[in-house]
Amino acid sequence: MDKKQECCMKIAAQQHIKPPRTIVTQIHRTDHMLFRRVNQIARDAGVEDVTVTHGWILRYLALNRQHDVYQRDLEKQFSVTRSTITSTLQLMEKKGYIRRESVPHDARLKRLQLTPEGYELHLKLRECFAEANVQMEQALTPQENEELMRLLDKLQSNLQDKPQQETAAT
Predict the structure, then answer these.
(1) Cα angle for residues 160, 51, 144 (degrees, 5° grid)
(2) For a designed S-S bond to 58, which of 13, 66, 122, 124 qualifies (C-beta 3.0 to 4.6 A apart)?
(3) What distance in Å separates the CA atoms of residue 56 and residue 38, rounded to the nearest whole number?
(4) What is the greatest pairwise CA distance in the chain?
(5) 118 in helix, strand or coil?
(6) pLDDT per residue as tens digits for the range 135-144
């Protein structure tokens, strides 16, 4: 880094430049803050070495125990790519939270099953998520909570499975 860049960075740090206030930036910041809060609540409850994403997947599998759940179901449910969910599931399997079992009708498919350890972890994390949710809800009035949910649903609906629009060539 040259002296000019170093000087500019020092000036920017001294001015406490704030990130832009856009919807994307605010949701991103809030998401990171919420992840940190849930992780802290989990650590305080004695739950270590697990991610929030693991918690969501464990919850989904626990709530859908009576159905066959496959990787593609998680991709759709959590709006993530195949590669992202593959690496997450590999780690969860390695840690003993889930098992992937072949199904007789299609060797390519692997049914996802919670292990007893995974189910116990789900129960602990369920309490952590509930505590974080209460903290979030208490920051707003009941009307604001309803409005926030309505607006988030609207944003998600707008983003859901829409093809990218081609830009007009000029």
Answers:
(1) 55
(2) 122
(3) 12
(4) 65
(5) helix
(6) 999 999 999 9
